[in-house]
Design goal:
Layout (H helix, E strand, L loop, with lengths): L5 E13 L2 E15 L5 H23 L2 E4 L4 H7 L7 E3 L5 H16 L3 E10 L5 E5 L13 H4 L27 H11 L2 H24 L9 H9 L9
Parallel strand pairs: 1-3, 3-4
Antiparallel strand pairs: 1-2, 2-5, 5-6
Helix pairs in contact: 1-6
């Protein structure tokens, strides 16, 4: 089958907590994206642009400058970093392979049914080391990532799926200490407003892409500078650590 693939490089700075040691690391993250053929070629172009812009948003706004940690360092994060605006990124273990596997899964969760990220590469500028993750068949699940019950446990804040399989802008998970804490999370914090906040930008991107194609001649990639400028004016939503 014939595909036109998009390739993009995005700089990522990550703050990684490992065994009570905090390190800032600079990476370049590269991904390739393709969209299945549509009977309506314009629908395919729109779908590819929507997936592309949502990926860039999550990488640049929700992942870059993030604090990466395992649950064993959860108390440390809550003690020293809770008041900072950096994104919180929970991973099963601290390794570059796990990190790009989580990212590969998350980006595909954002793409929808018709677009796919087939290859991602994480390169560290200082060491010159690169890590590549790819799945040739997008219909298969070859991830070695844990299910939510094994990751966040019985009192997971998001019981249905970990962040790398969720269609939203979150890149973190958390859990309550007991049933009472979980009930408080669902009654006071994870309300309809919370759920709406995690997807409203993704919905706005879909709408902005459709509007862009109504205003101009078709192009391969739409530049959403006006949308991005408006996005930067908004107060960033940040999950509350509880």
């Amino acid at each position: 089958m014939r595909y036109v693939r998009l390739k993009k490089q995005v700089p990522l700075n990550l703050i990684i907590i490992e065994d009570n040691f905090v390190a800032s690391r600079d990476f370049t993250f590269e991904f390739t994206l393709y969209t299945n053929a549509f009977d309506d070629s314009m629908a395919g172009v729109i779908a590819q642009n929507q997936a592309y812009q949502k990926i860039l948003y999550v990488l640049e706004e929700c992942f870059n400058n993030g604090i990466v940690y395992e649950f064993k360092n959860k108390k440390l994060l809550e003690k020293f970093f809770a008041d900072y605006e950096n994104p919180f990124i929970t991973v099963p273990n601290i390794s570059e392979v796990t990190l790009i596997e989580c990212l590969h899964a998350k980006l595909n969760a954002l793409c929808g049914d018709s677009s796919h990220v087939d290859c991602v590469e994480l390169s560290e500028e200082r060491s010159g080391q690169s890590w590549i993750f790819a799945i040739d068949d997008e219909t298969s699940n070859h991830y070695m990532l844990p299910e939510q019950k094994d990751f966040a446990g019985e009192f997971a804040y998001f019981p249905d799926a970990p962040w790398w399989h969720r269609y939203d802008s979150t890149v973190f998970d958390n859990y309550a200490d007991d049933e009472a804490g979980l009930e408080e999370w669902f009654t006071k914090i994870k309300t309809d407003l919370f759920d709406s906040a995690t997807i409203h930008v993704l919905n706005d991107i879909d709408d902005a892409i459709k509007n862009a194609f109504n205003k101009q001649e078709p192009t391969e990639i739409v530049d959403l500078e006006e949308f991005k400028a408006e996005l930067n004016k908004r107060k960033k939503w940040k999950p509350t650590l509880v």
